[in-house]
Amino acid sequence: MTPPRRTARPAPDQAVYAISVxxxxxGAPIQSIRLWxxxxxxxxHRTPGGTRRYSTNDLAxxxxxTALAGAGVNIAGIGRILDLEDTNAALRAHHDS
Length: 97
Description:
The chain has helices spanning 19-26, 30-38, 56-70, 75-96, and strands at 45-46, 52-53. By secondary structure, it is mainly alpha-helical. It has one domain: Multidrug-efflux Transporter Regulator, Chain: A, Domain 2 (Orthogonal Bundle), CATH 1.10.1660. A hairpin with a 5-residue loop joins strand 1 and strand 2 (52-53). The protein starts with 18 loop residues before the first helix and ends with a helix. It comes from Mycolicibacterium iranicum (Mycobacterium iranicum).
């Protein structure tokens, strides 16, 4: 009997998911994802043809944005919160190294 095939997961920063897949995996509407990109909350990778591609890290960010929006935080507030969280993560990484 052949053992089950293992599928390698992409690296957290490897942009592999189309916007439709990102929306399905996170539960966020495609139009919301596009809106958040226009407001600078997301910066997906673009293929040479201009197609958006999202990484696992992007999916986590979309999930966080969805949670903040669901809590009633406006887009400007979400941007500020994400900036502070990114700064804290960078400081922690610097401190731990």
